[in-house]
Amino acid sequence: MKYDIAIIGGGPAGMMAAGRAGELGAGVVLLEKNSKLGIKLLATGGGRSNITNIRNNRELADSFGSKGHWLLSGLNKFGPKELIEFFNKRGLKTKIEEENRVFPKSNSARDVLQVLIDYLKSSKVDVKLGFEVKRIVRIENKIKKLILSDGREIVADKFIVCSGGKSYPSTGSTGDAYKWLKHLGHRIVSPRPSLTPIILRDKFIKDLEGLSLKEVKISCYQNNKKLCSSVGPVIFTADGLSGPVILNMSEIIGREDPKDLQIKIDFFPNLDFSQLDRKLREEFNSSSKMLKNALSQLVPPRLVDTLINLSGINSQKKLNLITREERKALHHLLKEFNLTVFGLAGYDRAMITAGGVDLKEVNSRTMQSKIIENLYLAGEILDLNGPTGGYNLQLCWTSGYLAGEGALFESRFLNNYLLLKP
Ligand SMILES: Cc1cc2nc3c(=O)[nH]c(=O)nc-3n(C[C@H](O)[C@H](O)[C@H](O)COP(=O)(O)OP(=O)(O)OC[C@H]3O[C@@H](n4cnc5c(N)ncnc54)[C@H](O)[C@@H]3O)c2cc1C
User: Fold this and answer.
1) How many domains does the chain have?
2) Separation of 28 CA from ligand 1 center, angstroms?
3) pTM for the whole thing?
4) 101 lines ligand 1 (CB under 6 A)
5) Residue 265's domain spans which residues?
6) 90: number of CA atoms within 13 Å, CB side?
7) Ligand 1 pocket test target in 40, 120, 397 with most atoms within 8 Å of CB
8) CATH code for the domain of 301
9) Which of 78, 141, 166, 293 is a good FRET partner for 86, with 20 to 30 A between their CA atoms?
């Protein structure tokens, strides 16, 4: 059987592309190697799925960095507003949380997935689970067919690659398409893990595992020169740091040589050096409390032993006996807690893969490849990635929607569609 459009990958981008093309009347097959659709989608937002970020389209595009403008025309066609309408119309209520992040009201990624599964059904998409594409066969400038792992073939007029990146490979995203697309003539910007925890060399980190801090300032230095800095929540892991601030910073850090990098934590971002010094002096001069007890009032108790060990002060020492130098050492630790970067966690812990198909080779209005006539691309496979906060899923929804339409409009169905919908 020959399909109008064959789509590789049943993640957010592939499901949106398939649903949209099918809804408009194309005969679509969606090929997913897992036995279920949207496995990674279920893990998004800690199982709650932060589906988008509701802000104006220009700001949204800018959040993707210097290449973000590429997405703007797509966002104007199918941006957060249209996406929320899409879900609301299909019975999924949404809510807006801090920093414009949008979640399903039910806090359930499963409900998001169910809407997409229903969309595929109503769009009469032929969903094939357990279908792993192994190879793409091209003749001249067109793809002819796909070869599956069991040798079967899928023939179609158009092909949309939505196979994701390489992160969380256990969900099926194993980066299969990079080699196919390279072979087809596309330039692949080197993939690398992004939105991923930072791994530190400092052994004492292990003692702080699980400690989460609501608002600290994290700065990254390269050979003592500040590279970036941000305020927000962080969490200590067994081997380093994680949390939104760290994940977003990993995008910048990932471009540098980790051996030159240090992290400094300011536990009191709202007090400058002299304000904190005054606070410590007031505490220390007038009290005969033990240092350990006094510090527990200032910082989370789990941090106290580490701070005292690093300061070299006897934890039983009374506050009013602490010397000026000792107070200065503590002050320094509280404002510039120094850590040494080992590197970034790999694909198994990275929320997304940076890099991918060079955007210069993809039409931003239709997602059509400029290299292969009947090829379209959507989702994380593209060389575009945003920070945490719903941006990366919005990229999938927008590019998927556009690819579904683009593949259809470029095909022989265009005329029929225009006749049906004047
Ligand atoms: C833990 C975690 C939490 C996240 N939370 C959020 C969040 O809250 N908000 C947000 O915006 N982003 C979030 N992200 C990022 C977001 O999940 C991804 O950007 C998004 O899933 C990418 O969608 P995609 O459709 O491009 O690819 P994927 O979701 O990776 O889907 C690709 C699909 O293609 C299939 N496939 C691959 N190769 C083949 C093949 N050869 N044959 C057939 N099928 C194949 C895979 O099995 C997979 O199902 C999170 C990511 C992770 C890992």
Assistant:
1) 2
2) 20
3) 0.93
4) no
5) 198-344
6) 19
7) 40
8) 1.10.8.50
9) 166
